């Protein structure tokens, strides 16, 4: 009787072990499948001129759902200054959806929220500013390999608050 109990217990333990073992490797396989759909990239920018400097870094990650659709998130930070006039710091994040009609043509929709800090040298003329600025972009670009170049339009554009010169903003995205 004792041997029957031990045999049954060992058999049940072995079955539970096989079940857990198969679940572990199934979970590992699903996890690696998720990460194989991820792409990382973003953009950097640098401009300077007579007394002017601006630098931007914007890392992002997308999840490629299939060959046509991807969705992701991004961060951005920039600093700009003009000698004897102002300096500005902008930080924020974005949510993006990408759709490729064909491999070379990409449409995008993006929500971006930025926190803007502008400090002016002469506060008698201009007042320092700290505010949140939302933007909703719809864009179109030409894609080749991992690079997309195009233009996007901010439907919430506000000339007095936007960090962009106008509602149309050129872009270049790179994902690996």
Walk me through what this model shows.
By secondary structure, the chain is of the alpha+beta class. The protein folds into two domains: 1-36; 37-175, Porin, CATH 2.40.160. 20% of the residues lie in helices and 59% in strands. It contains one helix and eight strands, in the order αββββββββ. It has an eight-stranded antiparallel beta barrel with strand order 1-2-3-4-5-6-7-8. It is elongated, with a radius of gyration of 26 Å. The N and C termini lie far apart (63 Å). Residues 4-9 have low confidence and may be disordered.
Give a summary of the structure in a few sentences.
20% of the residues lie in helices and 59% in strands.
Average of the residue pLDDT scores: 87
Distance between the termini: 63 Å
Helix percentage: 10-25%
Q: Roughly how many Å is the radius of gyration? A: 26 Å
User: Uncertain segments of ≥5 residues (pLDDT<50)?
Assistant: 4-9
The number of helices is: 1
Q: State the name of the first-level CATH class of the largest domain.
A: Mainly Beta
Total separate domains: 2
Strand content: over 45%
Write the element-wise H/E pattern from the N-terminal end onward. HEEEEEEEE
Beta-strand segment tally: 8
Envelope shape: elongated
| SSE class | alpha+beta
Q: What summary fits the major beta sheet?
A: 8 strands, antiparallel, barrel
The CATH architecture of the largest domain is Beta Barrel
CATH topology of the largest domain: Porin
């Amino acid at each position: 009787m004792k041997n029957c109990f031990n045999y049954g217990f060992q058999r049940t333990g072995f079955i539970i072990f096989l079940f857990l073992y198969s679940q572990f490797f199934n979970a590992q396989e699903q996890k690696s499948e998720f990460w194989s759909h991820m792409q990382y990239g973003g953009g950097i920018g640098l401009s300077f001129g007579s007394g002017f400097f601006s630098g931007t870094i914007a890392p992002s990650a997308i999840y490629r759902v299939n060959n046509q659709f991807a969705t992701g998130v991004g961060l951005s930070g920039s600093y700009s200054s003009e000698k004897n006039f102002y300096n500005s710091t902008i930080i924020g994040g974005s949510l993006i959806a990408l759709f490729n009609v064909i491999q070379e043509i990409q449409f995008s929709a993006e929500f971006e929220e930025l926190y803007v800090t502008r400090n002016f040298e002469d506060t008698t003329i201009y007042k320092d500013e700290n505010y949140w600025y939302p933007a909703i972009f719809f864009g179109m670009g030409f894609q080749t390999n991992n690079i997309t170049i195009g233009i996007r339009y901010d439907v919430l554009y506000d000339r007095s608050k936007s960090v962009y010169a106008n509602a149309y903003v050129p872009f270049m995205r790179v994902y690996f």
